[in-house]
Amino acid sequence: MQQYIAYYRVSTTKQGTSGLGLEAQQHAVAQYVRAPAQVLSHYTEVESGKKNQRPQLLAAIAHARQAGATLLIAKLDRLSRNAGFIFALRDSGVDFICCDMPDANTLTVGIFAVLAQHERELISKRTKEALAALKARGVALGTPANLTTEAMRQGQVVRQQNARENKENRQAARLAVLLRQQGHTLLQIAQELNSGDYRTRRGKEFDATAVRRLLLRQEIITGSTTFI
Fold first, then answer.
1. pLDDT tens-digit map of 108-128
2. How far apart are the first and last CA of the chain?
3. Bridge partners (DSSP) listed for residue 8
4. Pairing, β 38-46 against β 70-73
5. pLDDT digit string (tens) for 69-90?
6. DSSP string of 24-59?
7. Model confidence pTM above 0.70
8. Cβ contact 57:48 at 8 Å
C-alpha cells in the first residue's frame, strides 16, 4: 500500500490562517491519493519561496524517510524556486511526487527547477536595470510626480503584458512542450493542463486549439520548430 507525507506551503501568514491557497493544495493532494493509498501526515509551511530554511519541510522529509513513504507536493512551484534546493532534495534519498506533474522524472523536475530559478534571476536583473536607467535619466523614483497620465497608461500596458505572460502561463507552456515531445496529442495535453488547474490567458480551460496556440507562441519565443 502506497503511503504519502503531504507537504504544503503558503507564502504569507495571512494565507496560512485564512486557508487561501492552502485549500487548493489540500484538494490537489486529496484528488491524487486514492484508496488504498493513504496520507500518513500533513506538514504546512508558512514561508517565502525564496528561502530554503524550512523546518516543516525538513520534518516532512525525515518522516517520509523513517516511514518509507513518498513526499507529496501539490505543485512543483510550491517546493522551491532554487534549483540547488531541489537537487539537494533529490539526493536526500526520499522519493517525492508533485500532483501537477505526477509523471515527471528527476530530469524534468530538475529542468523546471533550473528554469524557475533562471526566471526569478532575470526578473530581478531587469528590474534593477530598469530602475537604474530611470535614475540615470533623472527620474525621481517613488514620488507622486511620476504618476502622470502617460505614466499610468504605460503602467497599465505593462501590467496587461505581465498578465498575458504570467508565471503560470509560462509553466503551462513548458509543460505542454514536454508532453508534446513525449508524444502526447493536443487533446491529451489539454486534459493534463486542465487537471493541473492551468487556464488560458482568458481564464478558460484548455482545448486542443488553445494548446496549439500555446505551443505556437512557445515556438516563436524559443525559435524551435519541433513542437507542432
1. 666 766 776 676 677 778 788
2. 40
3. 44
4. unpaired
5. 999 987 766 555 556 667 767 7
6. HHHHHHHHH--TT-EEEEEEEEE--TT----HHHHH
7. no
8. no
